[in-house]
Amino acid sequence: MKKAISLVFISILALSASSLFAKDPKQIFSEWDKDKNGKLSLEELPRNARPNFKRVDTNQDGTISLAEHEAFLNRPRQPRRERPIPEGIKAFRNLPYAQTKNPRQTLDLFLPEKRAKDTLLPIIVYIHGGGWKNGSKESAMGKLAPYLATGSFAAASINYRLSGESIWPAQIHDCKAAIRWLKGNAKKHGFDPGRMAVWGNSAGGHLVAMLGVSGGVKALEGKLGEHLDQDSRISCVVDFCGPTHFLSMGKFPSNIDHDAPNSPESQLLGGALQENKKVARKASPITYVTKDDAPTLIVHGSKDPLVPFNQAEIFHKALTEAGVKTPFSGWKGWDMA
Q: φ, ψ for residue 192 (rounded to 5)?
């Protein structure tokens, strides 16, 4: 089991650069605006963005303003289509894990058609980011496909209720219900419930970190689904840029005012962080760290403009002091956003 966990850690880290969450529009604009005049010229755009210059420059003045930039990125788009399944992968889509008809309480399960060995497979479970208010399980295939292609892993991707629909702790209740569902159906699909890695970025990083530290916390289990006889413990965690201590996020440089009533964290909790300190502590993974937590790989960029790098540092320290195996990849100079 240790060998399989190590393989998950190493291989996911190797693909880390391709699994980062989307940048905030203002951050993109600031990075591209080399002369800091508040406008983007054609020459300042990356080559792959230049073909859209005339579409974005709606007033045709030869430059792109922040308003034009944001309007283009936030323009109405066609609903996201399910990414085609690569050859050799069997997909089970939109499986309800909570005995409801809510599409936010479904998961996708993926199995290799040809297995490398005739044995139960370890499984990688991906939880999407998006500030707890955006995102979906459909974003996972590009990340999971390389592992499925080896024939050595099963994989799953989870939807959970977003903050616009339900506030905390609905999100962790959903994730734990999904884990229990997977364990309850492991034998049927030929994967090992005792070798389950969870991987998430940003808000998903927060949720996988919470899964890693709360396996024995009854208050966070919820009572969703038909597999309440299963526990929600997992084997290892891969946390990309996840918030871990909500009350300290506002103390460090960020493009987001995390303490503001409209911050992603405040929307998750249903009120401003500093006015809801008790709930904020209960929603922070660092609160639950104990020596029996799952091994946790932490990946975070030192210049992350959204989730302060300190969130990774303090979580790594807490896990280490508790005696939990926790490799830490702090990428200096990377924003990981």
A: -95, 115
Joined tokens for residue 241? 């840029």
In the numeric block, which tokens belong to residue 51?
């073909």
Could you tell me how far CA 330 lies from the centroid of its own chain?
17
Q: Is 122 in contact with 197 (CB distance < 8 Å)?
A: yes
Rounded to 10°, the helix 170-184/203-213 angle is: 60
Would you state the structure tokens that stand for residue 326, as one six-digit string? 């926790």
CA distance 302 to 310: 8
Q: Which amino acid is at 243?
A: P
End-to-end CA, the chain: 32
Number of DSSP helices (H) and strands (E) in the chain, helices first: 11, 10
Domain spans in the chain, listed from the N-terminal domain onward? 2-22+86-331, 33-73
For the domain spanning 2-22+86-331, the CATH number is: 3.40.50.1820
pTM above 0.85, yes or no: no
Q: Is the pLDDT of residue 8 over 60?
A: no
Whole-angstrom distance, CA of residue 227 vs CA of residue 90? 24
Q: What is the pLDDT of residues 71-114, one digit of tens each?
A: 887 777 555 566 678 899 999 999 999 999 999 999 999 999 99
What's at 76, amino acid-wise?
P
Question: What beta strand segments (E) does the chain contain?
Answer: 39-40, 64-65, 89-96, 106-112, 121-127, 154-158, 191-201, 236-240, 296-301, 328-331
- Percent of the residues in the chain that have a pLDDT greater than 70, as a whole number: 88
